Amino acid sequence: MRRDYGRYLSGLALAAALALGAALPTAAPAAPPAGPGTASDTASETVPVAAQAACVTDPATPKRQLRGMWIASVANIDWPSRTGLTPAAQQAEYRGWLDLAKQRRMNAVVVQIRPAADAFWPSTYEPWSQWLTGTQGGNPGYDPLAFMVAEAHARNLEFHAWFNPYRVANHTDLTKLAASHPARKNPGWTVTYGGHIYYNPGIPAVRAFVQDAMLDAVKRYDIDAVHWDDYFYPYPVSGVAFPDQATYAQYGAGFSTIGDWRRNNVNLLVREMRDKIRAAKPWVKLGVSPFGIWRNAGTDPLGSRTTGLQSYDAIYADTRRWVRQGWVDYIAPQIYWHIGHPAADYAELVRWWSETVAGTDVQLLVGQATYRAGASGQDAAWQDPAELTDHLTLNRSYPRIVGDIHFSAKDVRADRIGAVSRTATDHYRRPALAPAGVGGAAPAAPNLTSAVRGTGGVTLTWQRGATGSTAAYAVYRLPGDGAVDACDLADARNLLGTVRASGGTGTFTDATAAVGSTYRYLVTALDRLHHESAASNARVVTGTGGTFSVIVDNATAGGFTAAATWGTSSYLPARYGANYRFASPQAVSDPAWFTATLPAAGSYRVEVWYPADPGYNSATPHLVATANGNVTATVDQRSGGGQWRVLGTYDLAAGTRQVVGVSRWTSTQGYVVADAVRITRL
């Protein structure tokens, strides 16, 4: 269950949902020892974009992946940080959250805009949210939703509008609501339960009203998705029945049990809302992020091998049916347990959900418990910086998982124990396109009209294609000046970024272009559901005559890969950058690799940087992927650190690839260290 209000952080509902058994600690890696050019006018013909499955690409950097974070407004969890901020202060905070998302190479935000039967826009149905000004109904002085959508789209982030259908208040006094609140005007629509007020899901007029209140935002604003979390019927309070028996007597004809009737009420909400969204704006998705367990196999053979709270029975959410019937466009179960949890194993639940979406068009995302990583009081497994990144590594075993959403923004920013940084380094090294949805069609390819090198980098300019509906563009950069292969465009290592479409032209500046390097640039167009066009013509930008040299640190985005067996340390001051990676020697194929983009085939000098220590390895194997195969050079890391050490001169091929590896396979004792490499063309 998502953290929401103080009650859900420590109260009975969360305790009931998560009282699933003792945590199983995950082994952590050992700690380090205590002691120690000019634009070309030549344009090639349009290049198709190959399917990634048909190409050899880096599995750690998928090109298609939704990466998002929740921005919670209820109780001012994330945004606004408190009530009563000026419009300028609220807007500055929100921009900061979007900048964080871009920094972590995310492509979506899920923002709570109707937390408790109130609104973050001038709704014609419900009052302004109290979480804006401190007073329900208080006008914040601007239109937050219009601002939020525009700012997200300016960064080409998808905006998923997060609504809570039935929650009204975290107290039981209707008179505390704004005088205009529909719950005050229709008290018969409400029930009190567990210290809260809810709309009664069993009343047809209530269901129609909440749908209309949410559709108001769909119709008036350019949102990308309607998003619901796990709150439909409230989580049960021990020994207290939800007070809807009279409603069941009035509306429950044809249902033999109140549970079946309640589930049907939620089913109708989902199915009807899906139909209304598609009638209004077919490109707007409906996504749900339910509690992670549908049913346990001990109750239902179709369920997962778990023993926790069952959302089907406890909150009447038949999520499996929604998927199998195609009533949602994506499902993002909150799988908020660690790998190996004795009663709700993350590994078991991703397996179950992957099988559940099989054969459907429903996209599977995973709600990640980023709030648990390194937090006080959490299970021992969550004190391991590798737990979160291991979740995403495991996800790659299930191709139907197409992304993750992190709860919540403030925990992404806190980055306790470095868990978020490690996850981003391991899995979000390059930008990614969101997975393509059902319907829609790829637009025509754009025309790349110019690529000009300037003091700030290489600036590209293009024209929109003549046909189709273009919502965004993807920009690619390839090393060298050779022919373009379709598989180059399937490799995320060549994806520079994305740009929201506006008007008939577009522009992008590559500020990372090396002065001495020659590149090919291409652009593709995407429709609202992320279907990608063929690539534009290629433009070649030559180097300006400077010597090519590149430094790749262990923290360089897209430049370093290591398994969870490699630890991270900042102990020794002679390191390059903020930290370095280390591992114990072992006779296994487990190298850490540095990836670089080389502009052309030729002779290169390869150097390494490491912090030396008497306890480190005397013969650390370094692998160099030359044009003629791998070559091994050993380095005594006990001395000579804190400077560039030459491995040798090698013939290397052009392109983006793993160039230098540090291996654990050595018979000598002491940690092997991977810190940074420098590659210089001779």
UniProtKB/TrEMBL annotation:
SUPFAM superfamilies: (Trans)glycosidases (SSF51445)
Keywords: Signal
Domain (Glycosyl hydrolase-like): residue spans on this chain: 65-384
Pfam annotation, one family: GHL10
Signal peptide: 1-30
Domain Golvesin/Xly CBD-like span(s) in chain numbering: 550-681
Protein name according to UniProt: Family 10 glycosylhydrolase
Organism this protein belongs to: Micromonospora reichwaldensis
Taxonomic path: Bacteria, Bacillati, Actinomycetota, Actinomycetes, Micromonosporales
